[in-house]
Write a structure and sequence with these properties.
mainly alpha, MFS_2, membrane, MFS transporter, about 500 residues, single chain, transmembrane helix, Growth Hormone, Chain: A
């Protein structure tokens, strides 16, 4: 089994440090930027977050298919990292640019730039995530690599979250509009340098044969025919989530019933009767570890996304110190780096499944305890919040290493390994969860009457901010812990599969 050199783990970590200048960093301030600087209403911003996530349902899956079928001298996944980086940096700047437009024009601009940013992020991050699955065939090395990755991710987030408020104030000289734009110039330049280092220092080693008896154009055409499997559930969930009315609930029930019947029909077909895309879907739908991880990705991202999405509001209005939000982000991310790096040794001691469950429960309990924080008491929030974050940092580290296990399981069970598709679905549910989390923050605030342009609405919205900081995200953590109880792969089973796959590849080299 392949042991990775230290420099390669660090180089891989640089890629997620760069990506999280956007994902965990800049986007943490996007909601408050939209409502308090750009001038969108909380309800309009919530719908924006939800609609954009619908596009991710298509682009992530397509990107996973494209990456799986890419063949260059640099590999399948690494080239996409470098090709997409300039566009990711460009849209990072554009999304925080505030043109002088009408209310409708601003909303259209927000949709264009946000969709552009998520598309560029998809083209970059789906192959980057899948790269972990082909750098080594050792599951413990993947866990270690995932720890390095998320240490890098948290460092990238730390830089943006910790310094954005101060840079906005310093570079804008009191003008938040220009401050945000100039700050993103700095971060976009850093992003490009880090991505290049990640591309240059990593290597793809696993190249199992992937069943692809049609060309990519035919596969994409086939995918288009099957898009209802992706779009309709998301559309139904979005309508139910946003409107919470009887008609939206009925639509959701009808769609999910139809989906269940269609899936049963699909699973009853023989492999010879299925197209390439349908075979990929059947492989995923019969992959129990992947299905459970799919739910875990959504629930844990809701847990983390809600907490991070409300912090800027919480410190601005409940604690009473807007700039302290940056210090809190720094505290969280320093603890997160420690948590990510502790994941590998803790998983060897407890087992990954047990560690995942324990982390979910403890992080949920500490998060719920924030409900009793006295108004203005930052010390209590820092101590309890950072305690929760140590365990929360373990979640994504385990999640992405275990996605590699589900790719192993698919190859072991079916003789087919679509690593890019498996990881694209994983990144998709995380981005979907992040979108729903951001929308839920805004929906709750809107339900409490919050209007960023009307200071008279702040007092009534404070109870909503307390719940969003505590028991609302904690509920998702506890739900995820219950789901993880059903995860079927033990560490011993994973090692057995890994050994059998290595022998198969030796017996049948591609």
């Amino acid at each position: 089994m392949t042991k990775l050199p230290f420099y390669e783990k660090v180089g891989y970590a640089f890629g997620d440090a760069a990506a999280n200048l956007v994902w965990r960093g800049a986007l943490a301030y996007l909601a408050v930027f939209y409502t308090d600087t750009f001038g969108l209403t909380a309800a309009a911003a919530a719908m924006l977050f939800l609609v954009v996530r619908l596009s991710d349902g298509i682009t992530d899956i397509i990107m996973g298919m494209i990456a799986d079928r890419t063949d260059t001298k640099w590999g399948k996944f690494r080239p996409w990292i470098i090709w997409s980086t300039p566009f990711l940096g460009l849209f990072m700047v554009l999304i925080f640019t505030t043109p002088d437009l009408s209310e409708g024009g601003k909303l259209a601009y927000a949709y264009f730039t946000y969709i552009g940013l998520t598309l560029a992020y998809t083209v970059n991050n789906v192959p980057y995530s899948a790269l972990m699955g082909v750098m080594t065939d050792d599951d413990q090395e993947r866990t270690s690599l995932s720890g390095f990755r998320f240490a890098g991710a948290f460092i990238g987030g730390l830089i943006v979250m910790g310094f954005t408020p101060k840079l906005v104030a310093m570079l804008g000289a009191g003008d938040d509009v220009m401050g945000y734009q100039y700050t993103m110039y700095v971060f976009a330049a850093a992003l490009m340098v880090l991505m290049f280092i990640s591309f240059a220092t990593t290597k793809e080693r696993i190249s199992p044969p992937v069943a692809a008896d049609t060309d990519l154009k035919s596969e994409i055409s086939d995918l288009v025919k099957n898009l209802p499997f992706i779009i309709l559930p998301l559309l139904a969930m979005t309508l139910f989530f946003y409107y919470r009315e009887l008609y939206s609930g009925l639509f959701f029930a009808v769609v999910m019933t139809g989906m269940w019947l269609a899936i049963k029909k699909l699973l009853n077909n023989t492999p010879e009767d299925l197209t390439g895309t349908q075979r990929d879907m059947v492989d995923l739908l019969t992959n129990k570890p992947w299905l459970i991880l799919l739910g875990m990705g959504f629930l844990t991202m809701m847990f983390n996304g809600i907490k991070y999405g409300v912090i800027a509001y919480y410190f601005k209005y409940f604690i009473g110190d807007e700039l302290m939000a940056g210090q809190y982000f720094v505290g969280l991310l320093v603890v997160s780096i420690i948590g990510a790096l502790c994941t590998s040794p803790l998983s060897k001691l407890l087992g990954r499944k047990n560690l995942f469950i324990l982390s979910l429960i403890l992080s949920g309990l500490f998060t719920g305890a924030l409900f009793w924080a006295p108004q203005g008491d930052a010390t209590y929030v820092f101590i309890v919040g950072c305690s929760a974050e140590f365990f929360a940092a373990i979640m994504p580290t385990l999640f992405f290493s275990m996605l590699g296990d589900s790719a192993d399981y698919s190859e072991w069970k079916n003789g087919r390994r679509a690593t890019g598709l498996i990881y694209s679905a994983g990144t998709f549910v995380q981005k979907t969860g992040g979108g729903f989390a951001g929308a839920l923050v805004l929906i709750v605030l809107a339900g409490y009457g919050y209007d960023g342009m009307d200071k008279a609405t702040i007092e009534n919205a404070l109870p909503g901010m307390k719940l969003l900081m505590s028991w609302i995200p904690a509920a998702f953590s506890f739900a995820a812990a219950a789901l993880m109880m059903f995860y079927p792969l033990t560490d011993a089973k994973q090692q057995q599969m890994g050994a059998e796959l290595i022998q198969r590849r030796l017996d049948n080299p591609s």
